[in-house]
Amino acid sequence: MDTLLYDKTVCCVSCKHIFTTKMVKSRRLKIxxxxxxxxxxxxxxxxSYYLVWVCPECGYSGTESEYIELSKPQKDIVFKHVRTRxxxxxxxxxxxxxxxxxxxxxxxxxxxxxKKSKAYAGSLCLRLAWIYREQNNPTETEYLxxxxxxxxxxxxxxxxPAGGLDEVTMAYxxxxxxxxxxxxxxxxxxxxxxxxxPEIKKKRQLQLKIREQWRRAKEEYDTTKKHIQSQPI
Length: 233
What we know:
Elements: E1 5-11, E2 18-24, E3 31-34, E4 40-42, E5 52-54, E6 61-63, H1 72-81, H2 97-113, H3 118-134, H4 139-157, H5 167-180, H6 184-196, H7 204-230
Antiparallel strand pairs: 1-2, 3-4, 5-6
Helix pairs in contact: 2-3, 3-4, 4-5, 5-6, 5-7, 6-7
């Protein structure tokens, strides 16, 4: 495990405390499986466990891309709602699944307190769902639904790209999550949105994947429709 991790020194953007957090050596990762909602299963380690940085001094938490300078009002919010309630603890060692889940939930709280993008909040929920999936924990479903909710809000309210997601990728994820919850008609609609986007031409592999999932959703929709029609009145 230690050969796959290294220490990174970080300065907390809220309280300026210097701490170390574990990072994954991505070049050494071995992929076992790629799932339809972008979850990737690796052989020896789950890099998602280490995506959220947590300050042990004040509790400020976020991914590297969101670990950016805070304004005075934002620091006041962190102090009032997080630091005053924070029980100091260190997330800078090798993390268990429960510690990774706690780190993501802390980041999600901060995302909502500081009114970060819906896309970012949705991404946190999606990764949380993946960790619960790894544990065969049914709470996965709850966070997939949260992710879908945030992505829908982001697509209609925010300028994309946001939270590391562009318009095509988000439309695909909305479609895929809708399909997983039996919203086959909605899934087809969102897959079409992604396929109709001019930027899809730059994403050949994703384009092929969306077409595959579109056919899958269409088959599931037709099967469900026939089943409903065959039911006695």
